[in-house]
Amino acid sequence: MNIMLKIDLHIHTIASGHAHCTIWEYIQQAKKLKMKAIGITEHGPGYAETIVKSTYFKELGRIPKVIDGVRILKGVEANIINTKGELDLDDKTLQRLDYVMANIHSETLYKDKGSKLNTQAIINAIKSGKIDVLTHPFAEKGFPSDIKKISEEACKKDVLLEIDVAYLSKRRLNETTIPNLKIMIDTIKKYKKKIIIGADAHNIWELGDVANLDKIKKEIGLTDNLIINNYPKELFKLLKIDE
Ligand SMILES: [Zn+2]
Ligand SMILES: [Zn+2]
């Protein structure tokens, strides 16, 4: 695999409160890297550190579709707020976005409810039809869940499972990371689906960088033909947006 993504749909800007570059800086970097598309996905308003409210997401559509030859997608990394799988953005706002990514996050009102209820919350979010990508399902960070059940439900509902490369750094790798990734990949193979890779960039130097994934790719059974970032047409079709 090329260790740079041509499409990276998981990006945070200074609006997140803990990231360090602007949308414009990301666009310039994407152009430099000859990327095809990038997606802006600030944390939803329920995230403690974010400085954005729902209005921010409503207005995102004012940014042009293509800037300097780079397709700019507007999304969100929303937070699941309860076991019903509800999100921290209203439906009307969600519908205005190109795509919706979500999961349970710390620094939100959702507190750990144990594996059974956490799993239920995530599965209900998948079933709601409101999300396109389930971010970092393999990285439990305080919210244990049944990764197999979640992966199967996502495949059945055509919700993309994400490999979030930011969670593969030495500092963040833990004993569950590799086994969980293997379960995710085995499941998508079983259902003949693809997986999405996101850098979860918090600065321009992380944009599209998947070097940490490259190191474990073989071990987790990931091959290029399973990565939807390599198939723009298929990806855009799944997100129901034009290229
Ligand atoms: Zn963040
Ligand atoms: Zn993120």
User: What ligands are attached or bound here?
Assistant: zinc ion
Largest sheet: 8 strands, mixed
Low-confidence stretches: none
Q: How far is the first residue's CA from the last residue's CA? A: 23 Å
What's the average pLDDT? 96
Strand content: 15-25%
Shape: globular
Rounded radius of gyration (Å)? 16 Å
Helical residue percent band: 25-40%
Structure description:
This protein is of the alpha/beta class. The chain is 31% helix and 16% strand. The chain contains eight helices and eight strands, in the order E-H-E-H-E-E-H-E-H-E-H-E-H-E-H-H. Strands 1, 2, 3, 4, 5, 6, 7 and 8 form an eight-stranded mixed β-sheet that branches. Strand 3 (66-67) and strand 4 form a beta hairpin. Helix 4 runs parallel beside helix 5 (147-156) and helix 5 (147-156) runs parallel beside helix 6. The longest helix is centred in the last third of the chain and has 14 residues, at 177-190. The radius of gyration is 16 Å and the shape is globular. The model has no long low-confidence stretch (mean pLDDT 96).
